[in-house]
């Protein structure tokens, strides 16, 4: 149905419409909108804080790189340093460093204990041998003609024992070196999974040296616990 005024044009009907919406629903909608707005503001604050933190880390890393010799500086480009700074943002890498430090210290302590145990065992064997040799020489006082033979036998026994002990120590040291190498490989793999640039499993001295520099940088940037 159309409504016409005196001018002959179309005019819509005048209706005073009041929506029949539950006040609790309106309050819920307003709360949800406010919550989303607050989330957006919080995300923006976090992005700004992260940007400041990355900028700080990057500045510190650049200063640390300037302390390195030239051949190491060339590997640590601006892009690499930026990636390192970004990898530190959520603190996970710092936690990994702390955990690996604890594991390494415990492992090294255990390896040192193994070596000291063998050293003490060798010391005891040498002392026991020396005690026997001294007694055999004392016994020759009654039979001095036996002294050259006893001394020769003692020397042969000493040489054999020293060769045996040296071989045992060499084998243990080789085993300890392999265990330490495995620790390094585990650390390299862990940092690679954490997204720290230039970390991968390698025994190349140049690559390892760069990784050690990066690890030192991270340790220097670690917040006090």
From TrEMBL:
Keywords: Coiled coil
Pfam families: DGCR6 (PF07324)
Region forming the signal peptide: none
Chain coiled-coil ranges: 26-53
Similarity field: Belongs to the gonadal family.
Protein name, UniProt field: Protein DGCR6-like
Organism: Actinia tenebrosa
Gene designation: LOC116308858
């Amino acid at each position: 149905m159309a409504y016409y005024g005196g001018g002959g044009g179309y005019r819509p009907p005048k209706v005073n419409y009041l929506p029949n919406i539950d006040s609790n629903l309106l309050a819920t909608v307003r709360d949800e909108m406010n919550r989303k707005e607050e989330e957006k503001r919080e995300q923006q604050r976090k992005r700004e804080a992260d940007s400041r933190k990355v900028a700080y880390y990057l500045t510190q890393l650049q200063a640390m790189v300037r302390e390195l010799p030239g051949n190491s500086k060339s590997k640590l480009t601006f892009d690499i340093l930026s990636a390192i700074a970004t990898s530190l943002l959520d603190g996970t890498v710092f936690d990994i460093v702390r955990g690996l430090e604890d594991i390494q210290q415990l492992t090294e302590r255990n390896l040192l204990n193994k070596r000291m145990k063998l050293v003490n065992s060798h010391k005891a064997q040498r002392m026991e041998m020396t005690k026997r040799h001294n007694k055999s020489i004392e016994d020759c006082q009654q039979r001095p003609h036996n002294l050259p033979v006893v001394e020769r036998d003692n020397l042969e026994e000493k040489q054999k024992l020293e060769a045996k002990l040296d071989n045992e120590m060499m084998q243990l040291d080789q085993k300890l070196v392999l265990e330490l190498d495995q620790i390094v490989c585990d650390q390299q793999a862990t940092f690679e999974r954490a997204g720290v640039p230039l970390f991968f499993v390698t025994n190349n001295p140049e690559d390892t040296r760069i990784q050690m520099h990066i690890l030192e940088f991270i340790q220097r940037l670690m917040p006090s616990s």
